[in-house]
Amino acid sequence: MNTTEKVVTRFAPSPTGKAHAGSYRTAMYAWLFARKHSGKFILRIEDTDKERNDTESEKDIYEALAWLGLSHDELYIQSKNLTRHQELLNILIQGGKAYISKEEAKDGSGIIKEIIRFKNPNKKIAFIDLVRGEIETDTTDLGDFVIARNINEPLYHLAVVIDDHDEGVTHVIRAEEHIANTPRQILIIEALGWVPPAYAHIPIVLGSDKQKLSKRKGALPMTEYAKQGYLRDAVFNCIAMIGWNPADPGSPQELFTTEELIERFDFTRVQKSGAVFNIEKLNWYNREYLKKLSFDELFLYLDQYMPEELKNKENYSQMLKKIAPILLERIEKGTDLTRMYTDGDLVYFFTQPQVDVKKIIWKGLAEDADKIGKTKKHLEGVLELITKDTMSNTSEEWKTILFPYADANGRGDVLWPTRVALSGQEKSPDPFVLIGILGKEESIGRLTHAISLLSNEA
Ligand code: GLU
Fold it and tell me: Could you give all domains of the chain from N- to C-terminal order, each with its CATH number?
């Protein structure tokens, strides 16, 4: 790169399916590099494969980039450059650098078709890859490769070279799978009398099975992570760090703002081998960023994913505010609230739960002939302490009141039935937390109901 030249990078996706983390990591690196050098980041939709393009995928690209904040300075649609591609194709043919070849179609139909091949000068091509170092290839093995289906249909190698040149791209930052295409493209660039850009081929992203991340293996489109409630900052931080470590040597730092990532971006620390994307790591990042939200932000976040059925409850907003810290401990992402709801782990905060008498009895009392009587007695003991108390409000205060009783009478024997009576669930926050959230009156109602159920059993 000429030092006075402004950096121009690009992301050039083909809209042939909804792209996942692998593609967007490459886009991030192109964007981070451009922003670091106060350059330009171009988005080019490579839509020349009419049979495989679809508008849904194109929409998905815009949506994912906007969500990630990978703002582009210019947008190009490759198919609109067709006249220019044809013009240069003709120049190559006229200059003897490419030729029309009549060949039998590969489909076995026997039809003779005209295709356009590049006249390979059969030379060695060397280029410096910013990730891998010098790469040299003898292009002889590549033969006279095809650059257009016919004069009206230039293909990828030609189109990409022309667009990168015309759009002023200084650094081609793209997926490793294109590394074998680079010598062909440099041959075309030289035939057109141009200077090749710099290249950086980004190693592939692997799934946890160490195979290339793919839709078939469950990799989700980037836009899906947004819908599930992964926070933009968490996804950005996590994905940028697949195979790149921006931390100072020896530092365990894993959380970086986008500004820090821009400042630290450098190809020398991008690892050469494939790097693994795993969902557990993304979940960890998401929780770290959820913990950074202010209380109001957390409330709004949770509200987006709460089931409609609960939003209709009268006490909805008030209760959501109370349980927000508890929910934060129990979820990795917004849509986990749907799972919690289906498992019955949400609804009891909002309405009195159905209580299964069998669940109320602590397992330590299972063999006791008087298990129902004892459980009922403990619940009555708890109920009395709560009813008598006029001071307690918080979970901590309720704990001070009730814990000595539980300690004296058997913690499991007392606390287990209290919890089940309040939540209907075998797993839930502890009874002190529940009483703190539900309040004295509601807790009394629920305990009284459980005691009456036990009375009916006795
Ligand atoms: N359109 C190509 C793709 O989606 C990228 C071409 C390039 O980056 O050179 O794989």
Answer: 1-76+158-290 (3.40.50.620), 293-332 (no CATH), 357-457 (1.10.10.350)
